[in-house]
Write a structure and sequence with these properties.
This protein is an alpha+beta fold. The chain is built from 15 helices and 24 strands.
Length: 613
């Protein structure tokens, strides 16, 4: 064994480090010498959209956007991510066999265009490149499935199948860039507010959170399954128990639920946040600050105040827990007026009314369109009265009403001459139908202000709701929410009256965020679950991590989750939420570009102990 003095040991250590450095450099030099012949030292020294007259000789790369023949002279538009520049040549043969959307490298000299040829629509509209050499880097080998510049006019199925071409379209490309900018801004904002970004697991346990899970069969544990998380709900609560007081992440969430114009199939992202030792008001203030900051930075409309409504108020006035407050129309409940009516469709059921002022002079065709829409959404039609000058009613069902009912409507709904009152009566669907009719009438009347982001906060959701199909009460929202009033609120006989610390942020009729004050008390949790048939053993089995963690001093905590795609869709006003995702599945949950979902080999199925029926 060799013995070194302290100084000798330092010298030896330096020599070893120097030898390792030389070895690394030698290895890198060998790798560089092994490069493929088609790799260049440099592909470009300028960007197409940044070319200026004084640049002189330039080397640029990009896609061939267009080839134009002007009186025998060829012009080529070259596009990269920064913009477009025009190419010309003294010898048009250099452009022969060039196909649109091929990627090319061009060397040439920048020169000023003739003034008559200026193009003010692009940043390089006063210059062009006189090409001296051109090399095709990537050749298009067939007909393009669509024109890139007008790809948004092509049916969605084709666009998504060739999404890599669709994203060359500047509009679609910019949406992906916009998404990146918003998420980058969110991270800066959350960091500034001292939130800690933590990534939670993607492979986890299945839990009953409402939607269907994406299940992942285990190879190592026969007959058992993992699941992709519907949300990081349990993990973020466990982070609070762990002592992290301000958490966030841009979280991927996975739910097997059908797509809509405002809902993605399979995968979506949310700004997930949670805080310890906070009240409901603390979280709402944080949410207001986030939305104000993002919509002020990236939006182009006025931002309203954040009106707070209880769930009960929202349902009574708007028929939904996602009201569009840009629409001034409100529902008026007239069920009591008709409780003993001789008109059977209104008797002893839920009857909602919508009063629209001063439209009695509308044409019959106008009202027929309203009736047709009512039929389209599932109603048998819609009854209505016009209020005449003498406050008499003009409508087909007037003959079925008593004088008391007429006077009751005039007083309760504050009816005036020229008004029209519409009726929606249905024991189970009155709120749904009334909400849809309110939206339709607001749009038809031009009452919606498109120049505002109208926010509201819906609070005090019911803890439970009755499921008609299963004939029993179930959790209305998040089962881990704290009931208002704590344990005392759970001891009454009327389960439908229990209210939770749950809240939603809504903008222009779209749910943007949802959250709650969490239930951190184990005894309250057991009681909350017992009211819908869960035993303590059920809780231990289904939510073992939280059940165990809450034995060890869980702090009070609350949080929320903001839908990233819905926010982007609202800011950019796209028709479909899929527009703000780089590679979305189609509305049926298919990815034709990747061939997904797909069959797998029998060997793969055997490995995970699966046999197809």
């Amino acid at each position: 064994m060799i013995s070194y003095s302290h100084k000798e040991a330092e010298i030896h250590h330096c020599e070893v480090m120097r030898a390792n450095l030389f070895a690394c450099l030698f290895y890198l030099s060998l790798r560089l010498m092994e490069r493929s012949d088609n790799m260049k030292e440099k592909y470009r020294d300028h960007l197409c959209g940044m070319i200026k007259e004084e640049d002189g000789e330039v080397l640029v790369c990009g896609f061939v956007e267009n080839i134009r023949d002007h009186g025998g002279i060829l012009f080529v538009d070259l596009r990269d991510e920064s913009g477009v520049v025009q190419l010309v040549s003294n010898d048009d043969r250099i452009f022969m066999h060039l196909l649109k959307e091929s990627s090319i490298e061009v060397r040439g000299v920048v020169r000023k265009r003739r003034e008559d040829d200026y193009n003010e629509k692009i940043s390089t509209g006063t210059v062009e490149i006189l090409v001296s050499s051109l090399e095709v880097l990537g050749q298009v080998k067939g007909l393009l499935p669509f024109e890139i510049r007008t790809s948004h006019e092509v049916n969605e199925e084709t666009r998504l199948r060739y999404r890599y071409l669709d994203l060359r379209n500047s509009r679609n490309h910019d949406l992906v860039v916009f998404r990146s900018e918003v998420i980058k801004y969110i991270r800066k904002m959350m960091d500034r507010d001292n939130f800690l970004e933590v990534q939670t697991p993607i492979i986890t346990a299945s839990s009953p959170e409402g939607a269907r899970d994406f299940l992942v069969p285990s190879r190592k544990f026969k007959g058992k399954f993992y699941a992709l998380p519907q949300a990081p709900q349990i993990f973020k609560q466990l982070l609070m128990v762990s002592g992290f007081e301000k958490y966030y992440q841009i979280a991927p969430c996975f739910r097997d639920e059908d797509a809509r114009s405002d809902r993605l199939y399979g995968e979506f992202y949310q700004l997930d946040l949670e805080m310890a030792y906070v009240s409901e008001e603390d979280v709402l203030e944080e949410g207001k600050k986030i939305f104000k900051s993002i919509f002020k930075k990236f939006g182009n409309k006025k931002i309203s105040s954040f009106k707070e409504l209880t769930y009960k108020e929202s349902m009574e006035w708007y028929g939904t827990d996602k009201p569009d407050l840009r629409n001034p129309l409100k529902l008026v409940d007239v069920s009591e007026i008709f409780i003993n009516s001789s008109f059977a469709p209104f008797r002893k059921t839920i009857v909602k009314s919508i009063v629209v002022r001063e439209i009695a002079d509308k044409s019959n065709s106008w009202f027929n369109e309203v009736v047709e829409y009512a039929k389209e959404i599932g109603m048998p039609g819609i009854g209505y009265f016009k209020i005449m000058d003498d406050l008499s009613f003009n409508g087909p069902i007037d003959k079925f009403l008593s004088d008391d009912e007429r006077h009751g409507l005039i007083d309760h709904c504050k009816l005036k001459k020229g008004d029209v009152i519409f009726f929606i009566a249905d024991r189970y669907k009155a709120y749904k139908y009334a909400s849809l009719m309110r939206d339709m009438l607001g749009k038809k009347m031009g009452l919606i202000d498109d120049n505002i982001y109208s926010f509201c906060i819906i609070k005090d959701f019911p803890m439970y709701e009755f499921n008609i199909d299963n004939d029993r009460y179930e959790f209305c929202h998040n089962p881990f929410s704290m009931p208002k009033g704590g344990m005392d609120s759970l001891d009454g006989d009327n389960i439908q009256d229990i209210v939770a610390y749950q809240y939603d942020f809504v903008c222009n009729g779209i749910e943007m965020a949802s959250g709650a004050v969490r239930n951190h008390d184990l005894e309250i949790m057991k009681k909350v679950f017992s009211l819908v048939g869960y035993s303590e053993e059920d809780i231990k089995k289904r939510f073992s991590s939280l059940y165990e963690a809450f034995h060890y001093g869980a702090p009070p905590h609350a949080g929320m989750a903001i839908g990233i795609e819905r926010m982007l869709q609202l800011l950019k006003e796209t028709d479909s939420i899929r527009e703000v995702v780089a590679f979305p599945m189609n509305s049926q949950g298919e990815d034709k570009m990747m061939g997904c979902p797909s069959s797998v080999q029998e060997e793969q199925l055997r490995e995970i102990h699966i046999k197809l029926r």
